[in-house]
Amino acid sequence: MLRSELSDALKIGMKAKEGRTVATIRLILAALKDRDIAARGKGNLDGIGDDDIRLMLQSMIKQRRESIALYEKGGRLELAEEEADEINIIQRFLPEQLGEEEMTAAITDVIAEAEATSLKDMGRVMAALKERYAGRMDFAKASATVKAQLG
Are 84 and 12 within one domain? Predict the structure, then answer.
């Protein structure tokens, strides 16, 4: 489903002559193709699923946020703005992110369900969160919250 959404958005962007949108979607499709090729090597002939695509999009957003920080530190504000534009384009393909309270409640529920009691259980909790909330949760923040609740 996300694949067709990306293809449709690329066509619309090309017709509207939106250069930044077209370039960003092409970057997404190239990354997706790379992941599909890697998945084929592991026996998955259909490529990666929507949840994996969402995780890929989140990692692309994370990379751009890191780039923005570096560009701003280096005084390259025009490049930081371009990265911010790309983040906005990528976010169009992700479901709405969970807020702080929703994320904390979800983490508390998963910890209770997994009967996690110490940091040794963190891997199980994070795996369950990624399975349930792929594309809807910032897992860097979630990791810190899980660590705080289990520690």
Answer: yes
